[in-house]
Amino acid sequence: MAGVKFVSASRVYAKDAPPAVDALDLDVKDGEFMVLVGPSGSGKTTALRMLAGLEPLDGGRVEIGEKDVTFVPPKDRDIAMVFQNYALYPSKTVAENMGFALKMQGVHKDERARRVREAARLLDLDEKLLDRKPKALSGGQRQRVAMGRAIVREPRVFLMDEPLSNLDAKLRVQTRSQIAELQRRLGITTVYVTHDQVEAMTMGHRVAVLAGGHLQQCDTPRQLYDNPVNQFVAGFIGSPSMNLQTVPLTESGARIAGTVIPLPTAVRTAASQAGLREIVLGIRPEHLHLADGRGDLAGDVMLVEELGADALLHVRLAESGNLIVARTEGRKPPPPGQQVTFRVQPDDVFAFHPETGARLAG
Amino acid sequence: MTAVPVRDREPAALRLRRMTGQVGWGVLAWVVGIAFFLPVLWMVLTAFKPESAAQTWPPKFVFTPTLAQFRLVFSGWGPYVTHSLIATTVSTVLVLALAVPAAYALSVHPVPRWRDGLFFFISTKMLPIVAAIGPLYVLALHAHLLDSIWVLIILYTAMNLPLAIWMIRSFMLEVPKEMLEAAELDGAGRVREMTEVIMPVISPGLVSTALICVIFAWNELFLALNLTVTNAATLPMFLISSVPQEGLYLAHLSAAATVASIPVILVGWIAQRSLVRGLSMGAIK
Amino acid sequence: MTVIEDLAPPPTAEVRPRRASRRERWQLRLPLLPALVYTIVVTQIPFLVTLWYSFQSYFWNTPAPAHFNGLSNYKTVFTNPAFRGALVRSVVMTATAVIVAMVLGVFFAVLLDRKFLGRSIVRTLIITPFLIMPVAAALVWAGPMLDPNFGLVNWLLQPFGVHHVAWLSTHALGSVILVMIWQWTPFMTLIVLAGLQSQPADTLEAAKVDGAGAWATFGELTLPHLRPYIELGVLLGSIYLVNVFDAVKAMTQGGPGTATTNLPYYLYQQVNNAFDIGGAAATGVVTVILTIIVATFALRMFARVFQFEEA
């Protein structure tokens, strides 16, 4: 059981290229489920591999359990990893796959078999599968074998590299909760990489959002959602994503779609201090409330996506002509072509610097 | 940010192990490579020696090089190399002409029981042609083909055909199915499908196949030795005859060996991957 | 997502595949016929003729015409120690060469699988022996390399106490096998290298994380992965090597005595020295039958090994 720390960890591939991971500072507490999330190329997988010892560091250090492991080979870090494509040993049976690390450690055959069976039970893996080779298994079964191989080790840290990305949607949802449940049960520190923000939000105790090798924000899912620290995080977390519009500033607030939304003093001060004439205004789809013609923001409905319980309205705003998305009740959404108005609570609105993307007075 | 770059924090023991490992590996590989290549080096070196310098003890590494041996080879090899060229190119063209349709019939639109066909061809390769050499000689004699370039062309074609079929088939199997289906939808018949879809895609494969056939035909000795004398004698026979019963001509035979091997060496150096593919009958891509 | 209302009835599901008409079946077969006919004519007819002559007494150097002599040629084949000797020698030469070449091939492939300075050059160096014309290679080994008085090998081995060994006399079989190995190791190397490079990188990383050192990874993961490649190499190598003739002819002419006479050379001798067409034919038939037996196993193995290509 141990915590994990990235201290200014960097990885550079080519001399003049930007770093794949740029001075990452991240502190994962003992027993925590930390998700690294971000688009492809954000450095999340590289960071994981640095933690595993599969990538060398070009700057900073990595600690496991308070000890500097930057130069410790993977096998001595007491970690177990689940790979994106599972990386099962094709010439070995499922049982041999799961027991391989123990065999390398010199654990006795019977003890190995016991622990393998236990892990199989934990993962709901049929005993009959233990003697099969990976190519005879389905995708979901292989995924569980990969997990089992990690669990059997009883390591200090679990590393998972997008383990769900090769599963079909339904299986993904199912397995997602199983993994979260498993981690809760075993209490082992887990660092989990994914590009799917839904996975990140539902599974992690805390989520670290990365982009371009930089850590954007590391917080609980709730905090990320309610208090994004910059435009990237705001637009990345939440589905459908937050509406972000560049709008001009006025005396009291921001002007959008024929109305002015009042902004808090702190925001206005920060904006004028930065000498801004415009800001990026962020409003989440569920914060745009249909107002029966009595609202402030006006627009025309272009497209309606019916999801059953809700409906998503794609609305062309008056004045600017930009498209935004609003979430509304599913029963009787306004049809395409209809003119609608929305009401917004000033508290539900975010303001970002148009160039740096930083949140103004967050 | 910590000021000490990562490299300098690497524990000395680890760095030492890492560096010696890397360097040691390279050194070992180079030593092995050069040792293995040594006979070739020696062959080429000896080719530039006058005979007197080739028959010394200890063997000479420093000497005044001469082109005399090569001149000797070039003056003597005329008919031999011509026969080799003819037999090689004509048989290779024939092989391709026969193999392409056959491979087509065994891959893109397979005949029923195509597997049997394939294995029939491979079985002819496994059966040693050497076993039939006596009767082959008699047959060739009765057909007035003895010591004629045609007997070699005919037999080389048969020798290379199975290999070519397997190889070309493996290339045809790589043509994306969607391409063929699109052509079919566009109304292409069998011939058009072949000329406009398949051939362009497999043309590099055809070149590799041709190269492999050339290599085998060029190097072939047994059939040439037994079925030809002078009118169709090929380069390998020229080499064998450059080992006279009396006297040692090490430099001369080195020159002949070098010259004879150059075409295949060039081909092999340039087309390494095709070489593997051809020799493994298309199993290894 | 728009849905187009289709008012036409849906097409009939899954038309039952009808048997291709006779014409269509022949259209499919036509392209195969030239190659098939050619091969049958050129390879099978000689074998049929061989079979015919195997039952004849036919000597090329006598004026007597060929006449039927039943199974006496075959009796000679089976009782003649020369044939048995040639057979044994063929097996020994082929097996030794294939095994050693494969072991070396694995070693070289492992060497070439890691990046180092000048890797592609070393790779080219290693495959060149294979590209030398076999007759030429044999002659170079016989002369400039192994000559008792002027050969390089004797000079290189001097520090080890070796003095002017006449390799082709005292170690004839070994010398010929050496040349076979020298020429065919590159082939094995390239095949095994292809196998090494096809190993998925993430399984090797998983092994690293699981605590497997270099040797353990090689033994537990790499070798099992290489198995089909090694089998292919051994199979194809055997097919090529069992027919080796050039080296024997150029280096030792089957000697000293019969020390290096393998089956191909033995057949050559029967035709060229003994002018015994009948005997050569019978030997040929027996060789073919033996080859068929071995080839049946080989073909089955071939099919299995090629599964991984189809997969």
Report on this structure.
The complex is a heterotrimer of chains A (362), B (285) and C (311). With 362 residues, chain A is α+β, with helices and mostly antiparallel strands. Chain A is built from nine helices and 20 strands. In chain A, strand 4 and strand 5 (67-68) form a beta hairpin. In chain A, helix 2 crosses helix 3, helix 2 (94-105) runs parallel beside helix 4 (139-151) and helix 3 packs across helix 4. Chain B has helices at residues 6-9, 12-47, 51-54, 68-76, 78-105, 114-126, 133-142, 149-172, 177-185, 190-219, 222-227, 235-241, 250-270, 272-279. The mean pLDDT of chain B is 85. In chain B, helix 5 (78-105) runs parallel beside helix 8 and helix 6 (114-126) packs across helix 8 (149-172). Chain B has 285 residues and is an all-alpha fold. Chain C has a domain at 84-252: MetI-like fold, CATH 1.10.3720.10. Chain C has a two-stranded antiparallel ribbon with strand order 1-2. The longest helix of chain C has 33 residues, at 81-113. Chain C is flat, with a radius of gyration of 27 Å. In chain C, 47% of the residues are buried. Classes of the chains: A alpha+beta (362), B mainly alpha (285), C mainly alpha (311). At the B-C interface, helix 2, helix 5, helix 6, helix 7 and helix 8 of B face helix 1, helix 2, helix 4, helix 5 and helix 6 of C.
